[in-house]
Specification:
The protein is an alpha+beta fold. It is built from 6 helices and 11 strands. It is 19% helix and 17% strand. About 2% of the residues have low confidence. The structure holds adenosine monophosphate (AMP). Adenosine monophosphate binds next to loops.
Length: 330
């Protein structure tokens, strides 16, 4: 009511990928296209989390050890979008610690309500291509919209928790175009502790970071970036190459060989070429995109996505890396 928090109005639409069946939830907020800076405080170099506005502070010590505070997001698109922010400055590209992971998991367990079908997602955008806008270490969380099933939910359905080894690789859906690594978590939350979360996260992080080693020759400018997504049921890591589709440069197509012209043959009348459909969309993608929830700011992109939902998978691929489910780990 006093304007400390500015909720952006949006409409949402459920869609489905025709190839992978991946469910999408597209939030359309055209107001953001008019005021591009309204969703972040990146217009100044100040750290917005150093001295946050009192009205946004839910708890100054959410973990009861001085490590984290709980803030309301100042510029949410969805209601009750909260931030877990380190009290001391830490860099957003630093790895999650066992303490960070346990806090996130405990927070989810507190906020979830099975009877009311309320599930929460915690996510961490790490590195310049991950979609993060603030450098001060923060995890984020909001409720997964009711009746929205992510592709990770389907992938982990009925599967027991395991730690990856040479025989058992992390789960990866071979129908989506982008690389991702998922582990189911134990159904019984009392058996989840810091060690289990840390071993799960680091085993996925190891595979994620391998991408940056493997691609170093081809893309020497690549900077380590990835997303972490956590629910009560699973943890997922996604290596990232770009934060937005407009940064992606497709590989140049090999040139068509010149046609041989022989004198005897009469030239065939040229067929009229159909103009190629413009399939470029303008999307900025953070961790939530890899749970199928994307934010669209312009009408042109929105119209294209409504017509061809598979453009979302293409965008997730362009901002990530190729799926590796058919490759043996080395
Ligand atoms: P990310 O863009 O992933 O780094 O997340 C940063 C979040 O902080 C965004 O969702 C912003 O809306 C939010 N934010 C930006 N400035 C402030 C602020 N002054 N107080 C609280 N939240 C903010």
């Amino acid at each position: 009511k006093n304007g400390s928090l500015k909720l952006t109005e949006s409409t949402s639409k459920k869609l489905k990928d025709s190839v992978s069946g991946m469910p999408y939830l597209v939030n359309f907020a055209p107001i953001l296209a008019e005021k591009p800076e309204s969703n972040s405080s990146s217009e100044s170099n100040e750290d917005p989390f150093e001295n946050p506005c009192d009205d946004l502070i839910v708890s100054k010590d959410i973990n009861e050890d001085g490590s984290y505070k709980l803030l309301l997001n100042k510029y949410p698109i969805v209601p009750e979008h909260i931030l877990l922010v380190t009290n001391e400055f830490k860099d957003q590209s630093s790895a999650l610690t066992p303490n960070d992971l346990m806090l996130a998991y405990k927070f989810i367990c507190k906020m979830d309500n099975e009877d009311e079908n309320i599930r929460n997602l915690v996510f961490y955008n790490s590195g310049p291509a991950s979609g993060s806008s603030q450098n001060h270490k923060h995890l984020q969380s909001f409720k997964i919209p009711s009746n929205f099933i992510t592709f990770q939910d389907k992938l982990c359905s009925g599967k027991d928790h395991f730690l990856p080894n040479i025989k058992d690789e992390p789960l990866q859906d071979n129908k989506v175009a982008f690389a991702h690594f998922v582990l189911p978590l134990p159904e019984d939350s009392t058996s989840v502790d810091e060690d289990l979360l840390a071993m799960s996260y680091f085993s996925l992080l190891q595979r994620t970071l391998t991408f940056f080693q493997d691609w170093l020759n081809e893309k020497p400018d690549l900077v380590k970036s990835y997303n972490v997504l956590l629910t009560k049921n699973w943890i997922c890591l996604v290596p990232r190459s770009h934060s937005k589709t407009s940064d992606y440069k497709p590989e140049p197509k090999p040139e068509e060989p010149m046609e041989k012209i022989t004198e005897e043959t009469e030239e065939e009348p040229k067929k009229e070429e159909e103009p190629e459909e413009d399939l470029t969309v303008d999307l900025s993608i953070n961790a939530t995109g890899y749970a199928g929830m994307v934010l669209v700011k312009d009408q042109e992109t929105y119209d294209k996505i409504l017509k061809t939902p598979d453009l979302i998978d293409k965008s997730l691929f362009e901002c990530g890396f190729p799926n590796t489910s058919d490759k043996r780990p080395n």
